[in-house]
Amino acid sequence: MAIERWHVAEKKVPQNLILSRLPEGQLATLGRFLVPVDLPLGMRLSEPHQPVEHAYFVLTGLISTDALTSSGESVEVGVIGREGFAGLAGLLGHPQMQHSVQVQGAGHGLRIRLSVLREEFLKGGMLATLVHDFIYLQTVQMSQSVLCNRLHAVEARLARWLLTSADRSESELLMLTQEFLAQMLGSRRSTVTVAAGVLQRQGMIDYKRGKIHIADRAKLEGASCECYQIVKSAYERVLPGE
Questions:
Q1: Is the separation of the CB atoms in 145 and 76 below 8 Å?
Q2: For residues 103 and 220, what is the distance between their CA atoms, to the nearest angstrom?
Q3: Are residues 140 and 21 in the same domain?
Q4: Is residue 180's pLDDT more than 90?
Q5: Residues 142, 158 share a domain
Q6: pTM, full prediction
Q7: Does 142 lie in the same domain as 207?
Q8: Maximum Cα–Cα distance for the chain, whole Å?
Q9: For residue 236, what pLDDT band results from cuts at 50, 70 and 90?
Q10: Contact of 180 with 105, CB cutoff 8 Å
Q11: How far apart are CA 156 and CA 152, in angstroms?
């Protein structure tokens, strides 16, 4: 069966903020190689020390970058929504990466071979500029996560993480189990259960059967640590009006 391609002439401007800001000619060049893909919850896009062959531009949904230990423990260090893509290491010329990348919130995307994307990236122009902006935002997010995981209480970290995930996925409803939350925060499940219960009793979130709904964003922002606003302000500065 032939692979369905994404054609600029037949589609609206893609929701992805990198692709949507490209000049028409550059988007048309990449468009010949973009393939629409589903991004189901839990889909692994890359594994540590395995070849990275494709980039995945997010249209809807959420992608998580996780640091792993040799025993299989993990903690999330970054999330990606439609402002970016998975596969940055390959784009920068590194065929493997140290982290795991998986779909945290189901959605849709556009896949492209990294060899094709890298060729266009090395030409410079708007694609290179937008990728550099994305690298900066990922750096801010990851560095702030290190500080947050080291210094802040689990309730504040959970609030920050829920708000950040909601911002990147552009949805106040998140499909998350407590086990998954514990993995993302690098905490015990029992600890996260207690923290989620505190937020729920105070009316900030509703949590039922793997679904978390942000019921009162203002209160949740008040419960979050300063890390959320630091990262949020960086995104607002680089992506004005989005």
A1: yes
A2: 24
A3: yes
A4: no
A5: no
A6: 0.88
A7: no
A8: 54
A9: very high
A10: no
A11: 7
